[in-house]
Amino acid sequence: MSIIQPARGTHDYYGDKINLYNRIRSIISKIAKIYDFKEIQTPIFELSNLFKKPLGENSDVILKEMYTFEDKNETMLSLRPEFTTPIIRAAISNNLISNLPLKLFSFGPTFRRERPQKGRYRQFNQINFEIFGTHDPYSDVELINLADKFLKEIFSINKLIEQNITLEINSLGDIHTIQKYKENLTTYYEKYKFDLSEDSVKKIKLNPLRILDSKKEIDNKINLGAPKIKNFYSKESHQAFDKVQSYLNNENISYKINNNLVRGLDYYCHTVFEYKTSNLGTQDTLIGGGRYDGLIKNIGGPDVPGVGWAGGVERILLMLKNLKENKAIVELIILDDESKEYGTKILSSLRNKNVSTKYSYNKNIKKILKRASNENINFVIIVGENELNNKTFVLKDLKKEKQEIIKIAELDEIIKNERFKSEN
């Protein structure tokens, strides 16, 4: 009988992976509160038209990657391929944009039908932060600052220090800058239409900006000689980007300017940025985002500006794949049936005081100690006939490799003094 496998491009969460996933979720919620962002959750499917114009009708997302289906009433629905447009739709639908600036975040699954590869799945999880209602360049930097704080905190767990992460920034300027730049790019790439990759040749007329984002070596060589967008900035665009850089310098956030950084969706303008790593090959972006003034009006809301970023949970998990989270801090071993009620009373006392405790119903002490050590459990409590009669328990510290006999009356004091606190 063949084993039923998950659908291609999807994966299950369990064990260390779900623990780390929940750790990311917890850190995001904590940082969102510090930066005064409110959580919002949108449905995993929306009306298909919500995505077509904002994302670009000629974009890869719309042409190739959206999961779209017809409902029974002939309505076309799509699984959300990203979060920004659904969050804007929700803000408009629920009249949240009447009180600006509005700061929202979300966390959950998104869907794109693309070729599965390392760090890229068909169902994947994203973290999203958005600010609606301000042109102030500091709002761009506030979001970068938040992303910086999150990455530093998540990669500090279990003493993981060196991750080779770099912040790259660019400015696409205003709509006039982008239009003029596209015209010049089209002229430039027309000279190389017999040398570019097949995909890039198609983009010369549709959106030449996307050629700059190509991962193919043949395109990247040609991109080296492409016009630079900084030469097309309006005075206002130049000033806004200078302010972003000044604020980043003031907050001691390291960055480098990448003139070819454009992001993959049509709605971006002015500041764009990505946190990249050299540890994941071509799928190297952990967090990416930027400003999208005009998008909210495009979707049907008022003409207010916006800026935001998205982070890929699965790629972050790949960076953490060799880490182990504690499954429990204490494991209880009851050596015989006569001591069961005494032992389970200790178990309840620990759990009622919020001590993470494991009990596996196994009496084989040698086997349990070996597994507990492999699972990174800090302490083992052992009870048997002697402990029952003397109202004691054996406390074994697996990290310090020592044990002691403790009276049951001292258990509450040990818990109160945080003896059972993980060192990780």
- The value of Rg in angstroms is 27 Å
Tally of discrete structural domains: 2
Percent helix:
25-40%
Mean pLDDT equals: 89
Query: What's the CATH architecture of the largest domain?
Result: 2-Layer Sandwich
The low-confidence parts are: none
List strands and helices in order, with pairings.
Layout: H1 15-34, E1 38-39, E2 45-47, H2 49-55, H3 60-65, E3 68-70, E4 76-79, H4 84-93, E5 102-111, E6 123-132, H5 137-154, E7 165-171, H6 175-190, H7 198-206, H8 217-223, H9 235-250, E8 256-257, E9 269-277, E10 285-291, H10 295-299, E11 306-312, H11 313-319, E12 330-334, H12 340-352, E13 357-359, H13 365-374, E14 379-383, H14 385-390, E15 392-397, E16 402-407, H15 411-416
Parallel strand pairs: 1-5, 7-8, 12-13, 12-14
Antiparallel strand pairs: 2-4, 3-4, 5-6, 6-11, 7-9, 9-10, 10-11, 14-15, 15-16
Helix pairs in contact: 1-5, 5-9
Short description:
This protein is an alpha+beta fold and 424 residues long. The chain is built from 15 helices and 16 strands. It has two domains: 15-174 and 234-319, BirA Bifunctional Protein, domain 2 (2-Layer Sandwich), CATH 3.30.930.10; 330-416, Rossmann fold, CATH 3.40.50.800.
